Structure formats: structure tokens, C-alpha cells
Amino acid sequence: MTHTVFIDGEAGTTGLQIRDRLAKHAGVEVVSIDPARRKDADARAELLNGVDAVVLCLPDDAAKEAVGMISSNKVKVVDASTAHRVASGWTYGFAELDRDQRDAIRSARLVSNPGCYPTGFIALVRPLVDEGLIPADFPLTVNAISGYSGGGKGLIGEFEDAAPPAGTNDAYRTYGLTLAHKHVPEMRKFGGLDHPPVFAPSVGRYAQGMLVEVPLQLWALPAKPKSGELRKVLAAAYQGETFVEVASAEECAELQKVRAGAGGYNAALDPEALNGTNRMRLYVFGNDEAGQARLVAQLDNLGKGASGAAVQNLNLMLGLPEAAGL
């Protein structure tokens, strides 16, 4: 059986990547509005209610409007916007969140796709909170860098233009300086935290891929765990998962080695290494003598952080193989 899917917002960055993945998917047929009726609200409503599943790749207000246009209770919805990530009645689309989340997504009609930064943060933190190594009320910080594609067409154009004033020569840019970034509520809720973390996002001069880092003062944690304990908990949480893996102690130790002649620098942890995939790799770097650790998630902000996760959720909701098209 082939399932019909309408991508509302298919011309955007995430929509295009979802369409590319579904083009390789034997169990799905992507349907689009007739170009001659593209601005016809009736044509859009007809598609929103006439397919098996809808993927919303829209700004938040437009996503809410689209949901309001769906009158059929048979249409399954994956919303890639921020609009419904902590909303009542919506299931959070991070299948690896805990042992029950995958089944919750399978039985859901409305699924909110996670944000790219929260995917990395929650993957690192939630198992440690569940095991009591990080108390729910512990103050956490998350530092992260993403490719400029995560900022949509405006930021893509700015970084890919040759020079100011239309473009930028910036190599690196920090943002979220109001400490009120829209990803923070889902980080707190699905990280299992009592308080929002301090979130310090940034963008670099490269298109896609990201690193999400949570530094920890291990001596300040009640259990005073060693870095190996953190890695053990994460490895157990994601054992057997297809798309989330935990780097071994040996691999982390190799990355921590200072390269000869490199002025004291370690080997590179490349934010672009998993581009084009739905994979996420987690690392634990520790200095037990100092009582400190750095937890790092490596993923594609347009893959596991957006379009790959949307296809994974779509597969679960439609009863298809979870890795189909991925």
C-alpha cells in the first residue's frame, strides 16, 4: 500500500530535504498543489484533508493556520515548526526519548518534530536526568554551533552573498542574546528539567551540520559521577538504536589527544561529519581529576535535526519501516 503525503511548505529548506528523502521511499507518494491553484485556499484545504499524512514546513503562525484547516480526523500531521512542540494534544517526535516514545508516535495523529538544537541537548541530558546523575533542578548550560542553513532563506542568502551590505563576511556569529530562544521550552520540558538551561547558540560560515555541547562540573553534582559513568548511562539508553549512537571511551580518548605540531590543539570534531544522514553521535569527554566533563552531540541540523526526523516520524505514524527513505 502506498500512502499519500502533502508537504505544506515544500519549497523551503526543510521541505525540499523531506521531498528528496521521500523520493527514495517506495511506500509514499508525495502530492502537490496544481501550480495554477497554488494560491487557492480551497485547493490547499482539499489537499490537507485528502491525503494520509501532512508534513508542515511553515512558520509557526502558518502552521497553526494549516492545522485549523484540517477537519478530517484521519489525516496524520507532522509539524516541523516550533508551534506545537510543547502544546497539549501533540506527541513529541523524538523516538529515542525513552522506551515508550516510539509507541506513542506510532499511535499519534499529531506529532511535533523536535528542533535541531533540542535534539542534541535532550539526547545528552535526558538519560542522565532519568538515572539521577543530573538532578532535575541542576543549572545547565548548552553551547552550540550550527550551519547557516538552520536560519532559513534569509540567513542562507546573507551568508552566501558575496559581501555586505546584502551579504556578510562574518565567519562566526552568536545569537539568542535575549536568553528567550524559542527552543528553550522544549529543552526544559523534554530534558526533564525544572528550570530552563542557559542556551548559547551560534552560527558558522558553513551550510549545515552542528555540534551541541553541555559542559558539566561533575564535582557539583550530588553523586559526583566520573565521566565513564555518564558514558555508560548514555550507551545503555541508546543501545540498539539505528540513528543514535554513543562514541566509545577509546574514540573519545583518541579525540582528546593533542596533535603533534598543532600548537596544543586536539583532533577535530567535525560538525559536518554526519551531513546528509539521520544519524546523531554522542561523545563524553572528561577530566576526572578536575571533576569536569563536556558532553557533545554531533548531527546534521537538516537531517536528524529536521527533515530526517520528520521522515522517521512519518514512517512510524504510517506503520512503515522506521528507516525507509533514510
**Largest pleated sheet:** 7 strands, mixed
Provide the CATH architecture of the largest domain: 2-Layer Sandwich
With helices defined by DSSP (H or I, 4 residues minimum), what is the helix count?
10
Rg from Cα: 20 Å
> Any idea how many domains?
2
Whole-number mean pLDDT: 94
CATH top level assignment of the largest domain: Alpha Beta
**Could you name the ranges where pLDDT drops below 50 across 5 or more consecutive residues?**
none
Q: Tell me the overall shape.
A: globular
User: What's the CATH H-level homologous superfamily of the largest domain?
Assistant: Dihydrodipicolinate Reductase, domain 2
What is the N-to-C order of secondary-structure elements (H for helix, E for strand)? EHEHEHEEHEHEHEHEEHEHEEH
Please list the strands of the largest sheet in the order they lie side by side.
8-9-7-10-13-12-11
Count of DSSP E strands?
A: 13
Distance between the termini: 19 Å
Secondary-structure content class = alpha/beta
Structure description:
- The protein is an alpha/beta fold.
- The protein folds into two domains: 125 residues, NAD(P)-binding Rossmann-like Domain (Rossmann fold); 186 residues, Dihydrodipicolinate Reductase, domain 2 (2-Layer Sandwich), CATH 3.30.360.10.
- 32% of the residues lie in helices and 21% in strands.
- It has a seven-stranded mixed beta sheet with strand order 8-9-7-10-13-12-11. A six-stranded parallel beta sheet has the order 2-1-3-4-6-5, sandwiched between helices.
- Helix 1 packs across helix 10.
- The longest helix is centred in the last third of the chain and has 16 residues.
- It is globular.
- It starts with a strand and ends in an 8-residue tail after the last helix.
- The relative contact order is 0.16.
- The mean pLDDT is 94.
